[in-house]
Write a structure and sequence with these properties.
- Its main location: membrane.
- It is a single chain.
- By secondary structure, the chain is mainly alpha-helical.
- It has one domain.
- It is built from twelve helices and no strands.
């Protein structure tokens, strides 16, 4: 798994994908952080992550679109899945490489918060709550994106499919509120990513939400592994 992770991580930085993703996200973070400085109130630092959350979830599919679809398109997938390494290790290696790029990007966004915090007293629980929530939510989107990438050889299809799922997950609460059926409202509330994400933004660390997002990652990586396993024996 480590070898796969290293290879995939290098591939991100040998191509423009990681640089474009990091550049766009960090630029937008910089713009919003500058606005915080102009307001003269450190209270809004935590809200920057809330604003950037939507952008990050829309940009993340750019990291996952090539994870498995590129191998399939280049006909290198057979060599990969027949290599003396488990498909589970392959999937987790690819997932962790995309997650590492995302983690590095988010970690850099904390630098302005620490600088501003040196001259003021921001609400750190909100800042770190947003940071952790963005990591967990992002990890789930990455796992879903890797799974979608395993279903097609087109990076564009994988990109559009993952963006569509990401948008649906952000809007599902609105759909749930329009339902008159209590049962379906309960189901929507339980599977809602937004409902799990929101408490963190207020500095409330909910263990059940952590377990939920980790479970989503585990389930979709398992499904991706089974998808590759089926192709290994086909």
């Amino acid at each position: 798994m480590t070898a796969i992770w290293r290879r995939e991580l290098r591939s991100y930085y040998y191509s423009p994908i990681a640089y474009v993703f990091m550049g766009v996200v960090l630029f937008l973070f910089g713009v919003y952080d500058f606005q915080v400085v102009m307001t003269g109130s450190s209270y809004y630092i935590g809200q920057v992550y809330g604003i950037m959350f939507t952008w990050c979830m829309l940009f993340l599919p750019a990291l996952t679109m090539k994870t498995l679809s590129e191998d399939r398109k280049n006909k290198t997938d057979q060599a990969l899945i027949t290599a003396p390494v488990s498909v589970t290790a392959i999937v987790w290696g690819k997932f962790l490489s995309a997650f590492t790029v995302y983690l590095i990007t988010l970690a850099i966004t904390l630098i302005p918060a620490f600088i501003i915090g040196a001259f003021s007293d921001p609400t750190w629980s909100h800042i770190f709550g947003n940071f952790v929530a963005s990591l967990l939510y992002g990890a789930a989107i990455i796992a879903i994106g890797v799974f979608i990438s395993s279903l097609t050889e087109s990076q564009i299809v994988a990109l559009v499919g993952t963006v569509g799922v990401s948008i649906l997950l952000m809007l599902i609460d609105s759909f749930g509120s329009m339902l008159d059926n209590t049962f379906f409202q309960t189901v929507v509330s339980w599977i809602s990513f937004q409902a799990r994400y929101t408490p963190f933004t207020n500095g409330i660390f909910n263990i059940s939400s952590v377990v939920f997002f980790v479970s989503v990652v585990a389930v979709f990586n398992f499904l991706t592994a089974r998808r590759l396993e089926s192709r290994r024996w086909s």
